[in-house]
Amino acid sequence: MDALVRAKAEGHRAAVIFVVQREDVQAFSPNDKADPLFGRALREAKSAGVEIYAYRCRVSPEEVVLFAPVPVNIPYRLQEG
Predict the structure, then answer these.
(1) Domains of the chain, with CATH numbers?
(2) What is the pLDDT along the chain (81 residues), one digit of tens a residue?
(3) Alpha carbon distance 43, 64 (integer Å)
(4) Is this prediction's pTM over 0.85?
C-alpha cells in the first residue's frame, strides 16, 4: 500500500485490485480482526486517493476467470473483533 500511496502522491494513477476466489461473494472488506495493520494501510491508501476494486471470479482446475465486480466496503473505523 505504501508504494501505491507514494505513486499517487507523485501524480500517478494508483489502484489495487482484490480478486476474491468465490462466485458467491457479495462484497469485499478488509478483515480487520485478522490483520488490523493491513486494514489501517488500506484505509490510508483510500484516503490518499488510491482506487480500490474487487472482483469475484470463477475457479476451476483449468482456469481462473474474473466474473464480475463486487462492492468494496471499507468502514471508516477498524472493525474490532
Answers:
(1) 2-69 (3.40.1350.60)
(2) 999 999 999 999 999 999 999 889 999 999 999 999 999 999 999 999 999 999 999 999 999 999 899 999 998 777 665
(3) 28
(4) yes
